Predict the 3D structure of the following.
Amino acid sequence: MTTTYDPFHPQYFDEPDLREELTRVYDLCHGCRLCFKYCTSFPTLFSFVDAHDADAAKMTPAEQDQVVDECFNCKLCYVNCPYTPDQHEWAIDFPRLMLRAEQVLHRTRHRTVREKLTTQALARTDLAGKANTAVAPLANKAIGTPGSFPRKVMEKVVGIAAERVLPPYARQRFSTWFKRRGAPEPRTVPAEQGKVALFPTCIVEYQAPEIGRDLVRVYERNGVSCSLPEGQRCCGAPWLHSGDVDAFVEQGRKNVKVLADAVRAGHDIVVPQPTCGYVLKHDYPDYIGGPDATLVADHTYDAAEYLWNLHKGEGTALDTEFPGGIEDQITYHAPCHLRAQNIGLRSRDLLKLAGAKVTVVAECSAIDGTWGYRAEHYETSRKVAGKMAEAITKATEKAGNDVVAGDCHLANGGIVQETGTQPVHPLSLLARAYGIPDA
């Protein structure tokens, strides 16, 4: 097994060792070419190796790095790769290799002031969220119009693409609602079925609290009590994906402590956003390590996954009466970081259970948390997302679908950008199907 899969190995941050591993994997990927369609990294890789008479060892460091820069870590290549660790002796995990490369290059490559500012602006989500929710109407007016003068200034100063559709900030944070809410939703199942600690994510906390509200009410209706442990913060994915593993680990350790305490108190962890759920399940054990990170990972569930487990579990049940009804036809976008968790498309299954006919679209939005927000990646991101937009448009027109659903709020922003349609989180559709009013 290579050092790529052990961030604690003394050679993990050694650039010559990284270059050797890049050469090995690039050569194998060039010979396979199964992943040519997922992003621009692979066509770029193949063209470079072809130009060097099919010898990956002749690629320059700059050419190797361009492949890294074009990867937005959707993880679809890993999902479809037949040569992954524990399955094949070649032990290829291309997304993990790209993360390692980003981390090594973060330490060794010169970054411009603007590149550093972009990372800071995108990674300090809690700071931005607290500031912008406090002045939400003004903040949303400033950032809400792509291509506007304020957005052009933002691009020039901090490198966030002026034309990118950005999610607005909420006037009331999810945690504020949670503390002030009234009586729990009346239970419609015979007995209490579980206790969960919510990891709402910075997206739900500051920008989409309606997802959290619907999650709580759907869970309570099904006999699952919800708590919101104090001291949580952003999962740290923007730091990890930009290569700053030290900042990621520092932030992640704080979450691990809070969430491990919640697990020891008898709670499971539920996450309504796929990228953050992936971080808790996979990246915390890999980069933070230790028994607490493993404990958190073993008790973390995607929000729809947890409900489906109730439906299929022994001694548990899901309320399958849906007096509020649901749209007849729904186009469901399956986020890449949800598919990478290998848990099935449980949001789709819940929507079907409620009575909808669901068409699945599995193309990538090419956002990856922060990658698609950066000005230098904007055009490439939209090029990749074009396949997603075409698939959604075709599905909607062919089936006459009434609504688009998607678990990932960031990917949903990409759908708005490319199609003009605002997707709805599946939990919100489920809440309306139960007859729970939108609050």
Observations:
- The CA atoms of residues 285 and 294 lie 6 Å apart.
- The mean pLDDT is 94.
